[in-house]
Design brief:
The structure is a single chain. The chain has 187 residues and is of the alpha+beta class. Strands 1-2-3-5-4 form a five-stranded antiparallel beta sheet, with helices on one face.
């Protein structure tokens, strides 16, 4: 059975989200570009990417930055779509924000509690890699389909490579079966 609504209202959702922003300083200038709560499927991914592109055009983001943000957004949303075992209208969040110094892309969704340890290890291993190691791992995965001794996904490696920053993440226990995973990518 799917975990119910881990949030009672929008304010609680946003409070949870902002608490996870403590891993980095919050700039004085802040502009939400896209926010979404609901099911992530192929239609919502296309819609959210179109909204993100429109928002980035409205603030005159350079083309290379738009491409990077849209690529990372697509990877994050695909991860939710393919790896979230239990989606409801109220258990998946997505945000793109602009601060004075950076863009922040955030997803928050339920995952199986028993997957948290392996996902933590995957992300920590990817975050520990140098740019050269990431490129090598990425090519190995494309060429061979797996990494030797590792189970890191191509999407996570691509997110780390494109952003140039560590993937920030946090788990919050939802119940005995599910954990709420929040991922922040800074660009």
């Amino acid at each position: 059975m799917c975990f119910g609504n881990p949030y009672s209202d929008y304010e609680q959702k946003y409070t949870f989200f902002t608490r996870n922003r403590t891993n980095y300083s919050i700039d004085a200038f802040y502009m939400p570009l896209v926010s979404y709560t609901g099911l992530i499927d192929s239609l919502s991914i296309a819609t959210l990417l179109a909204q993100a592109e429109k928002s980035l055009e409205e603030i005159n983001s350079p083309d290379d930055m738009k491409k990077k943000i849209l690529g990372i957004t697509a990877e994050l949303l695909q991860n939710v779509f393919h790896h979230c075992p239990c989606q409801t209208e109220k258990t998946t969040l997505f945000f793109i924000e602009k601060t004075e110094e950076r863009f922040i892309i955030t997803t928050s969704n339920l995952i199986l509690e028993n997957k948290t340890l392996s996902l933590t290890k995957q992300i920590e291993n990817i975050n520990a890699c140098t740019t050269k190691q990431l490129t090598s791992h990425y090519r190995d995965l494309l060429k061979n389909g797996t990494l030797q001794g590792e189970n890191a996904g191509l999407g996570l490696i691509d997110i780390r490579r494109k952003s140039g920053n560590a993937i920030l993440f946090k788990f919050a226990s939802a119940d005995n079966t599910y954990a709420l995973l929040t991922v922040n990518v800074l660009i």
